[in-house]
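Need residues for this backbone.
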């Protein structure tokens, strides 16, 4: 039971509204974990996996229509609509409160109400924030115990302070008709109802650590980003830290846990985070990052010993699987698993499945939840209260065409522009069509808690506080040839691109100037040990001014949707790009005519 008066008052208020049968405080202890798991096995919220082969592993099957984030039901409830920006759905705070209070009314009758104090960020760190989630889902409690530093540790850190994010969650009746995820930045609160899915229900993650934190960051001079954090140590060199922003389900977890290929001996990669980074300027003028989370909530399909050996090893124990298929020996299976499809299995919805089935065995957005400390590549720096200094930042996305494998920005301002113009083909991590190209600035489109154009202005401002800012790069592992085949091998081989990036940051590594930024010269990438033809490399690095002329127009239309909020510096970078593209097209026309004549 909490000593904190503000917390007790709030819990009481919610108890009266939602009328649960009982209230249980989460202390984060192993004993509480065990009894929650036992209860879940009785209710069917968890299915025990083969404990001999996979100790501590369980399967959860969600409702069939509750399998991904629902961005159209997610709202930022600022007093003024303008502050939320065109990138967010908006509801007036009073309307949202009334609407959702009606859905919470009596919603926990017959259920237990859990109170989960949690800390985002390492203990005793100026980066860290305290939240308290109230939920009626045991699955949410267990996931929060993995994904955050939950229970006593958070309550102790909070003390008697009233400074905590109030996160209210109820499964409600799980109907998408009565599902809302509402953020109240001015009140430091999130109200979520009608979904048990990760990003909608584990409120420390996207809701607090990105949407509310980005708003707090704007006020307090720091950045909350949808970024992985990794440490890279070249042979005989010092560890350098890199962050990378990529949209959901674009390989952030794989990159964060990268295993160097055998043909790059002596390289070492360590993992700090796979999804979210909180970044603050340090006294030395560098940018420092912490991972606010304590676990990984990763996409399962495609995870294998080949694509992510560290993750595969890590998810053999103490892991909650959501929406994967079940084999007859009670082990999980999914598309892209190392083992071939089983002759028969139970699919993610609990139905019989065979390789002849037209449906997928595992849901494309099925997930694992695993403690970060279980990852073989985890860095001890994950607990460093001061964070790690960042050398380079990557903006990456899924683009089959136009965007080369890697290029470097010319300055922080140009780098912010590269982030602001990021676009990606959609994935199964959100409901909606997969494979559609959409703008996703800084991979934060679904997560920026305020007007995206003001957020770019904030990025520019943070850059001014840095005398030695990280160098900013754009990457694209997903470029394809005419037949739709990926040109770049990806996964562990991405270290070759990172090697060039680190060389560039050290003032070495050769690059050529193109209209969009600096790309590696053909010989600059270390390709020893991989089979990549000259033409394939040329295609990977190609910058086609004609294609970019089209992109420039698309960017202009996108910026128009933000009106006067777009910072002048972003317009300047856009004009520069337009000019360069125009000049390049003119000279290639000229070139063409010369040859024709
Ligand atoms: O579902 S989550 O939002 O937690 C994961 C993701 O989409 O990045
Ligand atoms: Mn994510």
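Answer:
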């Amino acid at each position: 039971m909490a000593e904190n008066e503000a917390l007790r008052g709030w819990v009481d208020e919610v108890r009266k509204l939602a009328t649960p049968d009982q209230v249980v405080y989460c202390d984060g202890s192993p004993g509480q974990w065990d009894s929650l798991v036992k209860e879940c096995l009785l209710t069917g919220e968890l299915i025990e996996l083969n404990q001999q082969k996979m100790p501590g592993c369980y399967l959860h099957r969600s409702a069939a229509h509750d399998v991904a984030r629902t961005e159209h039901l997610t709202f930022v409830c600022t007093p003024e609509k303008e502050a939320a920006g065109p990138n967010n759905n908006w509801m007036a705070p009073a309307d949202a409160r009334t609407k959702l209070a009606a859905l919470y009314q009596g919603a926990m009758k017959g259920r237990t109400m859990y109170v989960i104090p949690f800390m985002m960020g390492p203990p005793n760190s100026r980066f860290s924030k305290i939240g308290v989630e109230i939920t009626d889902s045991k699955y949410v409690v267990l996931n929060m115990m993995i994904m955050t530093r939950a229970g006593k540790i958070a309550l102790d850190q909070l003390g008697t302070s009233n400074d905590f994010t109030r996160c209210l969650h109820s499964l409600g009746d799980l109907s998408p008709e009565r599902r809302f995820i509402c953020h109240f930045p001015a009140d430091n609160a999130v109200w979520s109802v009608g979904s048990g899915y990760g990003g909608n229900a584990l409120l420390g993650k996207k809701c607090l650590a990105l949407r509310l934190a980005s708003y707090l960051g704007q006020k307090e001079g720091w950045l909350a980003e949808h970024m992985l954090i990794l440490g890279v140590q070249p042979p005989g060199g010092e560890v350098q830290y890199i962050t990378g922003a990529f949209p959901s389900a674009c390989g952030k977890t794989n990159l964060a846990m990268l295993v160097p290929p055998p043909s790059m001996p002596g390289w070492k990669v360590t993992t700090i985070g796979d999804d979210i980074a909180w970044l603050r300027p340090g006294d030395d003028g560098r940018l420092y990052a912490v991972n606010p989370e304590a676990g990984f909530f990763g996409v399962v399909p495609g995870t294998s010993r080949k694509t992510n050996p560290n993750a595969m090893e890590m998810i053999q124990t103490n892991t909650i699987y959501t929406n994967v298929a079940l084999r007859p020996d009670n082990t999980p299976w999914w598309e892209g698993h190392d083992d071939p499809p089983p002759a028969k299995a139970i699919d993610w919805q609990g139905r019989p499945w065979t390789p002849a089935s037209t449906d997928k065995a595992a849901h494309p957005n099925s997930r694992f939840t695993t403690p970060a400390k279980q990852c073989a590549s985890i860095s001890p720096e994950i607990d460093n209260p001061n964070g790690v200094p960042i050398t380079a930042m990557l903006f990456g996305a899924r683009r089959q065409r136009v965007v080369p494998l890697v290029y470097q920005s010319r300055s922080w301002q140009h780098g912010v522009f590269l982030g602001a113009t990021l676009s990606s083909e959609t994935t199964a991590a959100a409901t909606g069509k997969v494979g559609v190209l959409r703008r996703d600035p800084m991979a934060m489109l679904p997560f920026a808690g305020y007007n995206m154009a003001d957020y770019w202005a904030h990025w520019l401002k943070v850059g001014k506080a840095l005398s030695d800012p990280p160098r900013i790069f754009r990457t694209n592992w997903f470029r394809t040839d005419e037949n739709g085949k990926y040109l770049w091998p990806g996964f562990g081989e991405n270290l070759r691109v990172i090697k060039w990036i680190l060389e560039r940051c050290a003032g070495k590594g050769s690059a050529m100037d193109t209209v969009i930024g600096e790309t590696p010269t053909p010989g600059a990438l270390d390709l020893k040990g991989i089979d990549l033809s000259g033409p394939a490399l040329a295609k990977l690095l190609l910058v086609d001014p004609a294609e970019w002329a089209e992109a420039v127009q698309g960017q202009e239309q996108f910026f128009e949707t933000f009106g006067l909020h777009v910072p002048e510096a972003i317009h300047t970078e856009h004009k520069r790009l337009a000019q360069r593209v125009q000049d390049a097209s003119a000279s290639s026309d000229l070139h063409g005519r010369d040859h024709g004549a």
